[in-house]
Amino acid sequence: ALDQPGIRMESLREDFTKHLASALKDTGRAALHLAWQSQGARALLYEELLKRVVVPLAEAFGEVELERELLRVDFALMGRSDRVPRIFVESENEAWTAVQEVRKLCCLAARLKVLISVVEWDETPGVWHGKGQRGQLLGAWREVVTKHQPAGEFRGEIVAIVGEWRANGVLRFQCARLDTADSPDAFMCDIP
Hints:
Blueprint: H1 9-26, H2 29-35, H3 39-61, E1 75-78, E2 85-92, H4 99-106, E3 112-118, H5 134-148, E4 157-165, E5 171-177, E6 186-191
Parallel strand pairs: 2-3, 3-4
Antiparallel strand pairs: 1-2, 4-5, 5-6
Helix pairs in contact: 1-3, 2-3, 4-5
């Protein structure tokens, strides 16, 4: 598999470029010329080429699949002069669908990657009548991070900031690290 420690980066690059070159050579000249007529046509050509590259890479390295537009990121806080992102932020209103956002954050290079979501979080007895979602969500999100860590150069911290509007009228925000399994939540603030 691609995430196995024995796979050399050079080997992966060589196999990828070899199979891409083969797919390009197998594409008719007319199709290549047509692709050069517009950005959209080139994007379609790239997708078709990559679909052909996936097959031999999957045979060589195991599970490989193509996914379009994986890394559209909601927000980036970056250096004013160098424009290098320092913090990436993904927001998701439905906490149970935030796995996709966590996947994106795992693939980004920045010192801090942040997921912001809302859900009935607190599992303290009496707060949500035993229906707090913290444990299940943290488990799902941390599982995604754990799967990504051996796949390459994993840098920075990934945190989830979760807001919950409590029955007492207080809006509470808490922060939990996703890149370590034993990190406790950190209280951020209450807004009465």
